[in-house]
Amino acid sequence: MAFALAFPWDATGTDPATLAAMAKDFGRIYETQQPGRKPRWRIYLGKRDGRALYISRLPTRKGIKLPPFDSHEQAALLLESMRSAIRSGSATPDQVIDAYLPEEFSKELVEAWCAKYLAYWASRIRSGEGSPTSEREIVRWAKEDGHWGYWWGRDIRGINNGDVRDWHEWLAGRDISGKTRKNVSDGFRSMLNWATESSATGKGRAWPVPVFPVVSYAKSNTATIPVDRAMAIIEKIPWEFRGIYLAIGFESVRFGTAAATLLEDYDPKTGEIYWHRGRQGNRLDSPVGTQKNHEATRRVPWAPELIKWLEWRVAEASDADRLAGRAQALFWYPPARNADKAWSYTTHRKVWTNACTKAGEKISTQAGTRHSILSRLAEVLTPHELQSQSQHRNLQSLAHYTTGARANHAAMVKAIRPE
After folding, report:
1. What secondary structure letter does DSSP report for 388?
2. Which of 128, 131, 243, 261 is least surrounded by CB atoms within 10 angstroms?
3. Taking Cα atoms as reference points, which of 195, 7, 206 lies closest to residue 102?
């Protein structure tokens, strides 16, 4: 059965061969299938104003909603009806779309909002506020065949709790880890929140955001080692470029912060380091913005080993180097070929791995420095003191970095038996 519409306008007057070519190129049928569910068919009608247009069910009178296409043949019959109108000259492709999708542009399509969200992320990265790594993940998810592509063609305002549960079942069938599913789900929810808040006038939301199921997965315990073993590894690293490992370990800063910190951020008179920079990615040419926590902190290092190295580093930096703009990285890597003698993430890992081999250890840089030392500090500092040291936004995010902490039994005994 064909579902042709009557068009009130006159024929376009285009020659039959052109009309036939236009009709042939108009529309494509796509099949999608969720795990454990029947296939679905959609007719893709091209893009208008950056929006991908789809028909997934037979057209009906307004207010009546029929089930989606139940076969490829049903979708093919409708598409052929559209092509017939173009082929006969009764309507142009745009007129066909207007006739079959009269309310399409009153919709707030998910893919259109995803495009806006990506533009928003790009602007954040240009201003140094966003992470290129996070943006790359969102770009992968926000493709028609990506994890968010499930929602293409849907009105963002009509997504309900049941729809989200169905999507989570679909994600579970995509052979991805629980952590990835959680990241994908959290990212999509953030996009929905951003969209509805952007559309609102003043405070609040323009439309409700559905409740998302909790994604549970087994979290791996981060390996840690005693501080003396961590120091044994660091001591296998040549003194000249040992500083970055001491800073990450004892000042609890991230690699991106340590690698971006400059000589001018260290005050030899007060001994303070001004922690406020952050490399937004692992590449040497990644933009430098704020730290991941967006905080700026001045403080004096507490570890004698780091203090000693900083004094040596300043003594090594000549006035000529500073004036010429050479070797400006505070925690430098002298063999580096770049002008600032700054570390690349790859070299940072390679040097650490070599030191581990010499020390007879096998542990990642973060686990062997920041995680291990924070876990030891967690035994002697209060949670809020530890948070101040680590510069984490909250105690919950800090918990991941203190998996090796043990109760301080001596302090516990002293608390109940002060004598």
Report:
1. H
2. 128
3. 7
